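Hi R.,

Here's the chain you asked about this morning:
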Amino acid sequence: MHGTIKPVDEARERAYSMPLADMDPGHPELFQNFTFAPYFERLRKEDPVHYCKDSMFGPYWSVTKYNDIMEVETNHAVFSSAAALGGITIRDVSPDLRRESFIAMDQPRHGPQRKTVAPMFTPTHLDDLATNIRKRSASCLDNLPKNEVFDWVDTVSIELTTQMLAVLFDFPWEDRRKLTRWSDVATTLPGPQGLVATDEDRMAELMECAGYFGKLWKERINQPPKSDLLSMMAHNDATRDMDPNNFLGNLILLIVGGNDTTRNTLSGSIKALSENPAEYKKLRENPALIDSFVPEVIRWQTPLAHMRRTALEDYELGGKQIKKGDKVVMWYVS
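And the predicted structure, written out as tokens:
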């Protein structure tokens, strides 16, 4: 309708009219409606290290510019990823539901656990996987419906990502969609309209995940070492004797890390190309641009919106005084 204000214009007006002190850039509604951009734009310009004193996640600092993010990201002595302090997400999980993973722990334990799965992602091993990845990708795309509407997210983004997760874990093929479900349940906000209603419901499904993988673990630990992620952990000194919480924490990390990022990039790239037909035309006319398109679309779409740290001591960042125990959120999406 003529004269109608577009949602993005409404979002910009709201973002620039509200007092900075009232800004809550982590509110889920901004991401559900895809209206977060002007909020981060304003923060980068006017308050790149911003304190939100009241939100559904409690008080937190937002770090929105590259150099400041890198300062937090690389200062492990001051900014902790430890699950016991809240871990790596803006939402504080109840202490009895917190689980360590190698990305939600500090040194000296972080390094050895992370190195356990590193061989999976070496150039040599990725080259070995490339043939399988290309074959499955081609099959998925070649079998898409023609001249009819279909759900790209479910048919391509989720299915292709889930197939590759099953390969990486050597997970039973017929049950591969369980990986998708567990990833979604692990990252959702519980509520009446959500995937799960309560944290207890979430935990019940994640315990199903732990039980399923526990059976696979027993099989792998009694077999010669293989090249899948589960076997790598079962046969490595740093991860062989994980307690149940650490075991489940690392499983969820690997499942979510493999599912959410790839799936979001596959969906986001198609959306970006459809909204920018001139760029899509360039790509179709010159396939050599794919090499630069891939990292650019990851930057553009940003499959991981944020990571969180907890300050271990008082620290000055961007002229702001962060206090020991404060929650610090690095907004990669900014």
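The longest strand covers residues 306-311.

Let me know if you need anything else.
M.
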